[in-house]
From TrEMBL:
This is Superfamily II helicase. Residues 1-39, 608-628 are annotated as: Disordered.
Length: 628
């Protein structure tokens, strides 16, 4: 039976004869087949193909949102064309004969149907022509960003501010800025009241442990939060505040200044919850009450790790149900607040940290009585000022870093504090602060940096702390001593505990023989766990640690970052440590290892604080040569 819906040959010939002229090559953009331009679905299409990645095709829909689909079905087509679905029906029609029965055929588009199969094919073709698309590198959500020339791009969801011009969301300078739910806009206009003085006055109302510096740092924190995605480095902020210090009011001030949806704020956050809220945006994150939790929980560790990644705009990953993995890049500035800092922070986390601390408020202190409308307006004006002053940011940052380095603040500390102090400076003035003012602030920063510096500033020191503090009881006699005390005994140091000396040798000889026997037995015990003290005139006393993951060392480092032989990497970073050029045999096990000078192990050459000398003799020397 003949398909009456199919045009006849005569009808097709007539349509071909009356078709419009094909566009010239200069307008064809290489051609994309089916009479359309390459990388486009059809002329003036409200949907923009972005590319493909694996089984997925990516598009900007009629509203400018980024969408992806594995199967381009009718529902997806209707969704991405939305209020312009008529264009979809017009360009991918189903033809029907509208003539009365017995009359010549009159072909017209079915107003209720589209050629879904053909539309799906064209959308896939156009997306494929755009090439492989990686949203993690190409897509920028709401928040501040820098283009390839360092100019600021501020994406507000419904508008994108770039080089002083408001543009519609979409492709800008090779990046995709998809439409999203709007975040508060910066204040518009050429002139408005300076927001910095009232904001500073409000920040001064808290009882900071260092009033001047912490007020200035809190002002810098606001700027870092507002422009975080445009910065090369984002320090992590931690607010320590006991009960009755006004921490909740501080969080409320942040919420008002950033405005609704301008800040990801939570008191019960998880890593996955934060990344879901952020998407591809650079909105700041404020997590309250991140207190030490159950030691079996990874919640705090995972969030802190995410903040570590965000400091430099790195990539995060997690597994997914289809084993393909889920991840993204994060460019947000993080603020944590709590009474205590969890003990799960590693040295690399501490290096990214700026710590602000509050004391309880004085009795009778009045609340700020924050008016949401007033503080939202001030936040919008502050954001506008920072955006306006952004072109001078590189020079401002460089000058602040120079001042801090002159005061002895270097490395990661300089990265952190130069960013926050330069941002506070930019919030208050068009021009960079004078050199003497910067030097004065730098001295205050140097004082805090030295006070906050951890006892373990690198992985080598942390590894030694773990090893030396482990309890070792080879005889199971109940009186237990640390590895550090055993090393003291093996080296013959006077700080070795008397009880351990008594256990090691209880003979009558009180001379050098007894001392040598104690050292020998102590070394035999240490050898059973892969350690041994060696002493020679050329190198002095050194602790040897095996490379091989013998059972004793595995137990000493169990559950730590140095388990399963990783200790050897940190051991080589101990000052003046040397890898062995040949294997040593300890307790019947032969292995190469690392020699670590005892003088490089903190605390070993110190005398115990709880032993006062009663004989009036001068304190023994720390020089190992005196003890041979």
């Amino acid at each position: 039976m003949t398909d009456l819906n199919r045009p006849t040959e005569a009808e097709l010939a007539d349509q071909l004869a009356n078709a419009p002229e094909a566009p010239g090559a200069e307008n064809g953009d290489d051609g994309g087949g089916q009479g359309r331009r390459r990388r486009e679905i059809f002329d003036d299409c409200p949907v923009t193909p972005l590319g493909v990645n694996g089984d997925f095709a990516y598009f900007l829909d009629v509203n400018g949102q980024m969408r992806r689909s594995k199967e381009i079905k009718v529902q997806f087509l209707q969704s991405i064309f939305g209020h312009q679905i008529n264009k979809l029906r017009w360009n991918f029609p189903i033809w029907i004969n509208t003539a009365e029965k017995g009359d010549p055929a009159v072909w017209d588009r079915d107003p209720k149907k589209i050629d879904h199969a053909f539309a799906s094919m064209v959308l896939w073709e156009a997306a494929s022509e755009c090439g492989v698309f990686n949203p993690d590198n190409s897509v920028r959500g709401v928040g501040a960003w820098a283009d390839d020339d360092g100019a600021l791009v501020y994406h507000m969801g419904d508008k994108v501010l770039h080089q002083g011009e408001l543009r519609a969301p979409g492709r800008i300078d090779g990046r995709i800025y998809p439409a999203a739910s709007p975040i508060p806009h910066p204040a518009m206009g050429d002139s408005f009241a300076d927001p910095a003085p009232p904001i500073r006055e409000a920040l001064e109302s808290w009882n900071w442990t260092q009033p001047a510096l912490h007020t200035q740092a809190a002002l810098g924190l606001l700027g870092v939060q507002m422009l975080g995605g445009a910065l090369d480095w984002r320090p992590v902020f931690w607010l320590l505040a006991p009960a009755a210090s006004g921490k909740s009011e501080f969080q409320k001030l942040l919420r008002y200044l950033h405005g609704d949806d301008g800040l990801v704020q939570s008191t019960d956050a998880t890593k996955s919850g934060i990344t879901s809220q952020l998407g591809h945006s650079s909105r700041p994150v404020a997590v309250d009450e991140l207190e030490p939790g159950d030691e079996r929980s990874t919640k705090e560790r995972d969030i802190i790790m995410l903040a570590r990644v965000a400091a430099s705009g790195g990539q995060w990953f997690r597994g997914s149900a289809d084993q393909s993995g889920v991840g993204g890049k994060v460019y947000s500035a993080f603020l944590f607040s709590s009474i205590l800092i969890p003990g799960v922070m590693k040295s690399q986390d501490v290096q990214r940290l700026i710590r602000l601390e509050m004391n309880p408020l004085q009795k009778g202190a009045k609340g700020l009585g924050l008016d949401p409308r007033t503080w939202r307006a001030r936040g919008a004006r502050l954001k506008a000022l920072l955006i306006r002053r952004w072109p001078g940011w590189p020079e401002r940052l460089a000058q602040w870093r120079h001042s801090l380095e002159a005061a002895g603040v270097t490395g990661r500390d300089a990265d952190n504090w130069a960013t926050v102090m330069a941002m506070a400076d930019m919030a208050e003035a068009d021009d960079v602060a004078p050199e003497d003012a910067r030097a004065n602030w730098a001295k205050k920063v140097a004082f805090q940096v030295n006070a906050d510096r951890s006892d373990t500033t690198n992985d080598a020191e942390a590894m030694l702390l773990r090893l030396m503090s482990q309890v070792f009881d080879p005889w199971r006699k109940g009186q237990r001593y640390t590895i550090a005390q055993w090393v003291m005994a093996a080296a013959g140091l006077p700080a070795a505990p008397d009880g351990l000396k008594q256990q090691l040798y209880s003979g009558d000889d009180k001379g050098n023989y007894e001392k040598r026997e104690r050292q020998k037995i102590a070394n035999q015990m240490l050898a059973s766990v892969g350690l041994r003290v060696y002493d020679d005139k050329q190198h002095g006393a050194r602790l040897f640690i095996m490379n091989k993951p013998v059972q004793g060392l595995r137990e000493l480092f169990h559950g730590s970052d140095w388990a399963d032989g990783v200790w050897q990497q940190s051991a080589k970073r101990v000052p003046e440590a040397m890898p062995s050029d040949s294997a040593n045999t300890l307790a019947g096990i032969t292995s190469r290892g690392v020699y670590m000078p005892l003088k490089s192990i903190p605390g070993l050459l110190s005398l115990p604080m709880d032993h006062a000398r009663e004989d009036g003799a001068p304190p023994p020397s720390d020089d190992l040569e005196d003890f041979k």
